[in-house]
Specification:
heterodimer, A: alpha+beta, Aldehyde Oxidoreductase, domain 3, Aldehyde Oxidoreductase, domain 4, 6-stranded mixed sheet, 21 helices, 28% helix, globular, B: alpha+beta, Ubiquitin-like (UB roll), DNA polymerase, domain 1, 2 domains, 5 helices, 5 strands, 15% strand
Chain lengths: 857, 167
C-alpha cells in the first residue's frame, strides 16, 4: 500500500527554521555562568617520549584555573573494545604532530593561549613511521608496544575457492590502486562543554552534564564513565544541533574527554572548541589505502574470483580501524555475485593522526579499485561496462559467499535508470574528443547488524508520550546531525497515528531523557530508529484505537486514524480514502485545544446525548484513551534479526546489515590535455533507498554523497610531509565550491525493503563510493588514461598523459608531490603555536636551512 | 589589552560595548551580544560561515576588527527575518533542502540576500559565482539553487500581489 499521508511527501526538516534564522543552538553557541575556556597543548613531534612536563609556570599565570596532563585521567579508552589505546592526554609518549599533551582552563581564550606557552615539556624524539608499507617492517620504536610490526590488525579471509575461480577465468586483471587520505571537514569544528554539579548529600562534585558535537551521545557517556570512573547514570550527555559529522564525530574525540577532566579539575564549567587546524589533526578520516586487486572473469564478463589485498595507513591510534579494514573486505560482497573471494587486510599504525570512520566507511577506496578494474576488464574484453555489471548481478533473496543476506535489491533498476537518463547507449564513445562517460556502482549497509560493543540489547529504543493536550512527544536517542533524523521520527509517528505533523515534538539525544540508541553512524538511523519508532507509535495507537472503538461502538479493526481524525471504517462516505476524511473535516473541524478537566465531563455528557460516535478529532480520541487507559505512552525497540547478523568466521561481525542500499552512476567529464584539468559536467546518480520517506531529504543525502565523492575524486587530499600536515585549512584542503560543482541528477529507486520502516533503507552514504570510479572511468573514456591513484589532480593526469605518450615519466603519482614548494604553508600566526610554527619541526627536511635545533627553547 | 568603549549599529539597534580594540567582530557578536547565528568554522576567512553585511556588503566577520565597524550599519542573520517571520529565502531553504546541518546556512543567507538585493533575477551562472564565496559540506549546493529560484519567484509573486492590492 502506498497510500500514505505524510510518508513519501517532500517536507521541510522540522528544525529548518532554527538553521536558516541562526536561532538554532550548536554546542559552541552555548554559554554557562562562570564558564572557562579550555585550550590544548599539542605535540610538535610525530613520535617522541615525554621526559617531563612542568605546568607550574602556567598554573601561576593570573586567570588560569587549572592545568591538566595525562596523569589526571590515565584510564585508556577507544571507540572499539579491542582498541582502548588512547588516553585523554598523552602519557609517556606522543604519537603524532598534534597529539594532545596538556590542557589549560582559564577565564579567557587569550590567557589560556598564553598559559600554553608557559608549559615546559621535555621531549625525546623517536624515529617515526609515516609510510604504512615501511611501518609494517618495524622491529623497534613501535608506536604501541603491544602491536608488533605496527600492525593494528590483519585479516585473511577466504570464501569459496579463489584459486579454482582464477583457474576457471578466461581473463585475469591485476593492478595496484591508491586512494589518498581525505577528511570530513564538517563545517562545525568539534566542541564540548562540560559542567559538574555538586552533590547535595556528599557536598562533593556530583553529576556531570556534557554538551557535545557528537554523532554518538551514548558511546560518549560510556567512555566518559570509563575515564572519569563515574557511573554512567551520573553522566548526562546532550547533543545540541550538530554542524555535520560524516563520521568525524562518530567516535570519542579527545576534547570531549579533556573538557570533562578539565571541568573536574577547575570545578567550573569548561568549554573547548577546536580551531580548524585542530580539527584537521583530530581527523579520524578515510585512511590512505593501497589496494592490490586481482579479478578473474569469463569471456562474457562474469566474475569468477576476486583477490584483494588492502593496506590502510591508519595513523597513530586504533580508532575504528579494525572495523574499517573489515568493511573493506566484507563489502566486496553484496553488490555483485562473486563466488570466490580472497581478502588480506592490514590496518597499519603510522605516526600521523588516527583515521577512523568516514562516509562510506571502509568501502569507498576498495570500491574505487574494483569498479575501475571492472571498467578495465570491460575495455579489454570489448564489453559494455553496463552490460558487464548486469551479468554479475545477484539473485535475491540470497546470502552471499561471505555471509551477507540480501533481500531488496534495486541495483538492476538503478543501472537501467542511469543508462537511460544519461543516453549511455547513444552517446558513449561518440562524444567530442576529450569528453567521456563513465559508469560505476556501489552499495552500503543500512546500519551494522552487530553493535560495536557486542550485546543482545536493542540497537534503538523509542518512547512516545501523548498527553491530554493532544501533543505527541517522541523521545529518541537517535542523533540528528543534519541528515534529518528528527524529521524522519516525526514523520513516522505522524503517519502511524494519522495525526498532523505539527503535533509531533521530537526530543532527541539526551541521555537523561531519551532511551538508548547507538547513534548516527553506518547509516543506521532511518532503518533502526525508524523501525523502533513505528513500534512505539503502534503501541500508542493500539490504546487510542481500543478506546475509540468503544466510543464508536465498533471493532478496533474498523477504527481508522487519518488526517488528524479518528473515524469508523465504512461509516464514512466514499471508500475510506483520504477524500472521505476531508469531507469529515468539513463537518467537524478539529478544535484548537482541549481543556482536559472540563472536556472529560463534556465528553461523558455528549456521549450520553449523542450515543455512539462516527468520528472524532485526534484530541477527543486521545482524551478518551487516557480516560480508559491512563497515561498514553508507548515504547518500541529494534534489534536486527539473527539471519542478518552474518557468518561465523573471525571478523564476520562487520559487514552484515539488515538491508543494503544500491547505487549506480554515470559521470560525464571532459579533460583538458594541456593542463590536466578535469571538468565534471554532469553526474546521473540512481540510488535505491528502499522507500524515500522524505524525497527532499533523500535527494539531499544522495547529492551530498555524490558531491563529497567528487571532492575525493578531484581535489581533496591530505598532504603530509614527515608527519606534518601541509594543508590544515579549508582553503588549502580544497573541496569543490559551487562554481566547480556539476549538475547532479538524483534518481530515486524504491525497492521497498521487506523489513525496513515503510520499506526504507539507507540514503546517506552509499552513493559516495560510486562517484570516484565513475569519474575515473569517464576520464579513461575521454582521454584514454587510467588513473589508479585518487584524487585525479591535474598533476596526476598530466603525468599519466605523458606516460601514455611515452614521454619522460614524472614520478608524481607516488606518495606526495616532490615538486611541492619548500614552504607549502607558513604556520606563523597559526592559532596553536602562535607564530612558532616553522620552528616546531626541526627535522623537517624542508626546513634544513633554518638554524639547527631552532625548535627548542 | 585594555577595553575601550565602542558604539556599534547592529540590525538597526545601537549597542554600546566595552571591548578590546583587537577583538574580532565575530567574537563580539557571538560572545558579547549572544548573536550566535554567525558561525566560526575556518578561522581564516576561507569558508564564509561568519558572513555579515557591513553597509549592505557581505564581509567576513572572523577577520575583521569590531572597533573598525563603528559608524557602519552591521546586519547579521538575526536581522534577516521578515517582520519576525521567515523571509521568503529562509522558508525556501527549508522547503527545498538548502540546509542540512545548517552550520553554513547563516553565511549563505547573507550572501544570497546580497545577491538578490543587487540582482533580483540572477542567472544560474551568477548564482554559482556568488555562492562560491561560501563553503557547504553537506548539500553539494544543488538544492540551494532550487531554493533560491523558489525564493525569487515567491518574492516576485509577493510584489505582484502588492501591485494588485495597490490597484
Amino acid at each position: 500500500m502506498s497510500d500514505f499521508s505524510i510518508i513519501g511527501k517532500p517536507i521541510a526538516m522540522v528544525d529548518a527554521a532554527g538553521k536558516t534564522t541562526g536561532a538554532g543552538k550548536y554546542t559552541d553557541d552555548l554559554h554557562l555562568p562562570g564558564m572557562l575556556v579550555g585550550k590544548i597543548l599539542h605535540s610538535p613531534y610525530p613520535h617522541a617520549r615525554i621526559r617531563s612536563i612542568d605546568t607550574s609556570r602556567a598554573k601561576a599565570l593570573d586567570g588560569v584555573v587549572a592545568v591538566i596532563t595525562g596523569e589526571d585521567a590515565p584510564n585508556p579508552y577507544g571507540i572499539l573494545p579491542v582498541g582502548h589505546d588512547e588516553t585523554a592526554l598523552a602519557i609517556g609518549k606522543v604519537r603524532y604532530v598534534g597529539d594532545h599533551v596538556a590542557c589549560v582552563a582559564a577565564v579567557s581564550e587569550e590567557i589560556a593561549e598564553r598559559a600554553l606557552e608557559l608549559i615546559d615539556v621535555e621531549y625525546e624524539p623517536l624515529p617515526a613511521w609515516f609510510d604504512p608499507e615501511e611501518s609494517m617492517k618495524a622491529e623497534t620504536d613501535l608506536i604501541h608496544e603491544n602491536r608488533p610490526h605496527n600492525i593494528e590488525k590483519d585479516y585473511h579471509h577466504v570464501f569459496g575457492d579463489p584459486e579454482q575461480g582464477f583457474a576457471e577465468a578466461d581473463y585475469v586483471a591485476e593492478a595496484r590502486y591508491i586512494a589518498n587520505e581525505v577528511t570530513h571537514a564538517a563545517m562545525e569544528p568539534h566542541c564540548t562543554l562540560a559542567s559538574f554539579e555538586l552533590d547535595p548529600h556528599t557536598g562533593k562534585l556530583g553529576r556531570l552534564t556534557v554538551w557535545s558535537s557528537t554523532q554518538v551521545p551514548y558511546y560518549l557517556q560510556h567512555k566518559l564513565s570509563l575515564v572519569l570512573e563515574m557511573p554512567m547514570s551520573q553522566i548526562r550527555v546532550i547533543k545540541p544541533l550538530v554542524g555535520g559529522g560524516f563520521g568525524g564525530k562518530s567516535e570519542i574525540i579527545p576534547l570531549e574527554i579533556i573538557a570533562a577532566v578539565a571541568a573536574r579539575a577547575a570545578r567550573a564549567p569548561v568549554k573547548i572548541t577546536y580551531t580548524r587546524e585542530e580539527v584537521f589533526w583530530a581527523h579520524r578520516g578515510r585512511p590512505r589505502t593501497i589496494i592490490d586487486l586481482k579479478t578473474g572473469v569469463k569471456k562474457d564478463g562474469r566474475v569468477t574470483a576476486v583477490g584483494c589485498k588492502v593496506i590502510q595507513d591508519g595513523g597513530a591510534y586504533c580508532s575504528y580501524g579494525v572495523v574499517t579494514i573489515l568493511y573493506s573486505g566484507a563489502l566486496l560482497g553484496a553488490l555483485y555475485d562473486i563466488p570466490n573471494i580472497r581478502y588480506d587486510g592490514y590496518r597499519v599504525l603510522t605516526n600521523k593522526p588516527a583515521c577512523g570512520a568516514m562516509r562510506g566507511h571502509g568501502t569507498v577506496n576498495v570500491r574505487f579499485a574494483f569498479e575501475s578494474q571492472m571498467d578495465e576488464i570491460a575495455a579489454q574484453l570489448n564489453l559494455d561496462p553496463a552490460e558487464m555489471r548486469r551479468v554479475n548481478l545477484l539473485k535475491p533473496p540470497t546470502v552471499t559467499v561471505n555471509g551477507l543476506r540480501v533481500l531488496s535489491y534495486g541495483l538492476p533498476e538503478c543501472i537501467e535508470q542511469v543508462v537511460t537518463r544519461s543516453g549511455w547507449r547513444e552517446r558513449k564513445g561518440k562524444l567530442a574528443t576529450g569528453r567521456g562517460l563513465g559508469m560505476a556502482c556501489s552499495h552500503y549497509v543500512s546500519g551494522a547488524a552487530n553493535s560495536i560493543i557486542r550485546s543482545d540489547m536493542p540497537h534503538s529504543t523509542v518512547n512516545i508520550k501523548i498527553d491530554r493536550d493532544g501533543g505527541v512527544v517522541v523521545y529518541t536517542g537517535a542523533a540528528e546531525i543534519g541528515q534529518g533524523s528528527d524529521t524522519m521520527s516525526a514523520q513516522v509517528v505522524a503517519e502511524v497515528l494519522g495525526c498532523d505533523l505539527s503535533r509531533v515534538k521530537v526530543i532527541a539525544a539526551d541521555t537523561d531523557l531519551t532511551p538508548i540508541d547507538l547513534g548516527s553512524y553506518s547509516s543506521r538511523v532511518t532503518y533502526m530508529a525508524g523501525n523502533a519508532t513505528i513500534r512505539a507509535a503502534e503501541e500508542v495507537k493500539k490504546n487510542i484505537v481500543s478506546a475509540a472503538a468503544k466510543r464508536m461502538a465498533c471493532a478496533p479493526e474498523d477504527v481508522v486514524m487519518r488526517n488528524d481524525h479518528v473515524y469508523k471504517r465504512g461509516a464514512t462516505p466514499g471508500n475510506g480514502q483520504a477524500g472521505a476524511a476531508e469531507i469529515l473535516e468539513e463537518k467537524d473541524a478539529p478544535r484548537g485545544h482541549v481543556d482536559g478537566q472540563i472536556l472529560r465531563g463534556s465528553v461523558l455528557q455528549s456521549r450520553k446525548e449523542e450515543g455512539p460516535r462516527q468520528h472524532m478529532s485526534f484530541e477527543e480520541a486521545v482524551v478518551s484513551a487516557i480516560d480508559f487507559h491512563g497515561a498514553l505512552t508507548g515504547t518500541g525497540s529494534y534489534a536486527p534479526p539473527m539471519e542478518a547478523r552474518g557468518g561465523k568466521h573471525k571478523g564476520a561481525g562487520v559487514g552484515p546489515s539488515p538491508a543494503y542500499s544500491y547505487s549506480a552512476q554515470v559521470a560525464e567529464v571532459s579533460v583538458d590535455e594541456e593542463t590536466g584539468e578535469v571538468t565534471v559536467h554532469k553526474i546521473w546518480a540512481a540510488h535505491d533507498c528502499g522507500r524515500a520517506l522524505n524525497p527532499v531529504a533523500v535527494e539531499g543525502q544522495v547529492i551530498g554523497s555524490v558531491w563529497m565523492g567528487l571532492g575525493q575524486a578531484l581535489e581533496e587530499e591530505m598532504v603530509w610531509k614527515d608527519g606534518l600536515l601541509m594543508n590544515p585549512g579549508l582553503l588549502e584542503y580544497r573541496s569543490p565550491s559551487s562554481a566547480e560543482s556539476p549538475d547532479i541528477e538524483c534518481i530515486i529507486v524504491e525497492s521497498v525493503d521487506p523489513e525496513g520502516p515503510f520499506g526504507a533503507k539507507e540514503a546517506g552514504e552509499g552513493s559516495l563510493a560510486a562517484t570516484i570510479p565513475a569519474i575515473s572511468n569517464a576520464i579513461y573514456h575521454a582521454v584514454g588514461v587510467r588513473l589508479r591513484e585518487a584524487p585525479f589532480t591535474p598533476e596526476r593526469i598530466l603525468a599519466a598523459l605523458r606516460a601514455k605518450k611515452g614521454m619522460k615519466r614524472i614520478g608524481m603519482t607516488e606518495s606526495v608531490d616532490p615538486t611541492a614548494p619548500m614552504k607549502f604553508r607558513e604556520h606563523g600566526g597559526s592559532l596553536w603555536f602562535r607564530g612558532k610554527g616553522p620552528m616546531r619541526h626541526p627535522f623537517d627536511p624542508a626546513r634544513r636551512a633554518s638554524p639547527p635545533g631552532g625548535g627548542e627553547q | 589589552m585594555k577595553k575601550q568603549l565602542v558604539e556599534l549599529r547592529i540590525n538597526g539597534r545601537t549597542y554600546e560595548l566595552a571591548i578590546e580594540p583587537n577583538k574580532l567582530l565575530l567574537d563580539v557578536l557571538r560572545q558579547d551580544l549572544d548573536l550566535t547565528g554567525s558561525k566560526r568554522a575556518c578561522d581564516d576567512s576561507s569558508c564564509g560561515a561568519c558572513t555579515v553585511h557591513i553597509d549592505g556588503v557581505p564581509m567576513l566577520s572572523c577577520t575583521m576588527l569590531a572597533a573598525s565597524c563603528e559608524g557602519h550599519e552591521i546586519t547579521t542573520v538575526e536581522g534577516l527575518a521578515d517582520h519576525g517571520g521567515l523571509a521568503a529565502l529562509q522558508k525556501a531553504y527549508g522547503d527545498f533542502g538548502g540546509a542540512q546541518c545548517g552550520f553554513c546556512t547563516p553565511g549563505f543567507m547573507m550572501t544570497v540576500k546580497w545577491l538578490l538585493a543587487n540582482n533580483p533575477d540572477p542567472s544560474e551562472e551568477e548564482i554559482r559565482a556568488a555562492l562560491s564565496s561560501n563553503l557547504c559540506r553537506c548539500t553539494g549546493y544543488s538544492q540551494m539553487y532550487q531554493a533560491i529560484r523558489a525564493a525569487i519567484s515567491a518574492e516576485q509573486k509577493g510584489i505582484k500581489r502588492e501591485l494588485v492590492e495597490a490597484k
